[in-house]
Amino acid sequence: MKLAKGRVLLGVVAAALAVGVLSNAVPVEAQSLAMRVNIPFAFHVGRETLPAGIYTVRNVSDALAINDGKGHTALVLTNAIKNRAKAENQIVFNRYANDYFLSEARWSGYGEARGLT
What mean pLDDT is predicted for residues 32-39? Predict the structure, then answer.
């Protein structure tokens, strides 16, 4: 019986530690930048090809996470570049023939944008 109480106490302590660790991770997510965009054509992000649709583009540290909420996602590392956004958030594509490649994500009001290689 004493052993069972010790295991329960250990489980409670472990759960409390997990909640504490997860609570400390929230500010990192809160600092990420996100924009919602309607992309009317299929496009490439890194090695992924995504269909046309409405996407959330999120800057998370040195990466961009792109998701449409329907299972189409991409995560790609980026480099800091000079931000050329004027009044609105922007995403920039390079077009080669009929293929579009995501090349930049820009957030207005920030000195840095994210560039894909």
Answer: 90
